[in-house]
Every structure is written in structure tokens, then in C-alpha cells.
Write a structure and sequence with these properties.
elongated
Length: 128
């Protein structure tokens, strides 16, 4: 895969698939976006596609959490915060939701590429 074929969501610090350092840079980047304790599991270092799957699920759950928080914040907080603070919380959810959605697109792109790289030659199927 050449640089011209990389998705606009491709993380800048992850080298392109097919490059010698692709998996190494992908692992470093993915570990930066999951809980620190994930680093305790050697299997995630030895099998980057396992790490990318866990990262994809983790970031997707964080995005769903932000969406749920946004949906419920006004009602949950109206008796505890002044209206301007509730508005600020809503804006924080919006910003974090956008950031997390973009992160999820990047994680998904890396996960798909790692899955493709781990697939034995001639094996059928697509990433995801």
C-alpha cells in the first residue's frame, strides 16, 4: 500500500502497511489509545491484530459512552449545575465525541491493515 492509498483517517505516526516498521509503529500507537494495563499482556505485543481488535472495541465503547453521556447529561445534571455549566458539559461531550469518532476511524484503518497483513497468502475475506 503506498502513501497515496492511505485513508485520510490513517494515523500520522503509523508507518504504511507493507513497510518494515508498520507493525511496530502500529503497536506503539494503539497502546497509546487503550488503558495502560493493556501493556501487561504479552499476547497483545506478540499479536498486533489482537491489540487492534481490543483497541477497536475499547474506542467504540468510549464513543458510545460519550453519546450516551450527551443524551442524558442535561437531565442528569440540571439539578446539580447552573445552566451555563450544563451547556459547557454538553460542548465537552460534543468535542470528545468528535475526537473519539475520528480516533475510531484511525483505529479501524490500522485494524483492517493489520488483519490484512496477518492473513495467510491466498486466504479469502476482507478486513473488519
Amino acid at each position: 500500500m503506498s502513501d497515496q492509498q492511505l485513508s485520510p483517517d490513517w494515523p500520522a505516526s503509523v508507518h504504511p502497511p507493507g513497510s518494515e516498521s508498520f507493525e511496530q509503529t502500529a503497536v506503539v500507537w494503539l497502546f497509546d489509545h487503550v488503558p495502560a494495563d493493556y501493556r501487561l499482556h504479552g499476547v497483545l505485543r506478540r499479536h498486533p491484530v489482537a491489540l487492534s481488535r481490543l483497541a477497536r472495541r475499547h474506542v467504540a465503547a468510549a464513543l458510545e459512552g460519550a453519546r450516551e453521556g450527551y443524551r442524558t447529561a442535561r437531565v442528569d445534571l440540571r439539578d446539580h449545575l447552573p445552566p451555563h455549566a450544563v451547556d459547557q458539559v454538553m460542548n465537552a461531550y460534543l468535542e470528545e465525541g468528535r475526537r473519539t469518532a475520528a480516533l475510531l476511524r484511525g483505529v479501524a484503518a490500522v485494524d483492517d491493515a493489520l488483519r490484512d497483513a496477518a492473513r495467510p497468502p491466498g486466504a479469502a475475506g476482507a478486513g473488519g
